[in-house]
């Protein structure tokens, strides 16, 4: 099982961009669609404090949404986080 999890909806452009960024790095991820699942959306909002998708976890670390993931990548911190998580798996 992948240590990267994305809570998403199928047509969300930010979800698609986050998945493309991770695929470009060769990262596999567990995609959990919350489309049409109000209970899952409410639970995710309680867990993350955010009501938007995607919500991305690398291991137990809540990265946030696509903008957060992209910022980590641009800062050079995403690869280190992915390597650290891979070493723990």
UniProtKB/TrEMBL annotation:
Has a glutathione-disulfide oxidoreductase activity in the presence of NADPH and glutathione reductase. Reduces low molecular weight disulfides and proteins. Belongs to the glutaredoxin family. One of its GO terms (biological process) is cellular response to oxidative stress. This is Glutaredoxin. The keyword tRNA processing does not apply. One of its GO terms (molecular function) is glutathione disulfide oxidoreductase activity. The keyword Transport applies. The gene is grxC_2. Keywords: Cytoplasm, Disulfide bond, Electron transport, Redox-active center, Transport. It comes from the Bacteria. Residues 4-63 form the Glutaredoxin domain. CDD domains: GRX_GRXb_1_3_like. Transmembrane segments: none annotated. SUPFAM superfamilies: Thioredoxin-like (SSF52833). GO terms for cellular component: cytoplasm.
């Amino acid at each position: 099982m992948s240590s990267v999890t994305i809570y998403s909806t199928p047509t969300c452009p930010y979800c698609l961009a986050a998945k493309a960024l991770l695929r470009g790095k060769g990262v596999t991820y567990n995609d959990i669609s919350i489309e049409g699942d109000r209970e899952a959306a409410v639970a995710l909002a309680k867990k993350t404090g955010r009501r938007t998708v995607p919500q991305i976890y690398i291991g137990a670390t809540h990265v946030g949404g696509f903008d957060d993931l992209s910022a980590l990548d641009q800062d050079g911190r995403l690869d280190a986080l992915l390597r650290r998580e891979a070493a723990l798996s």
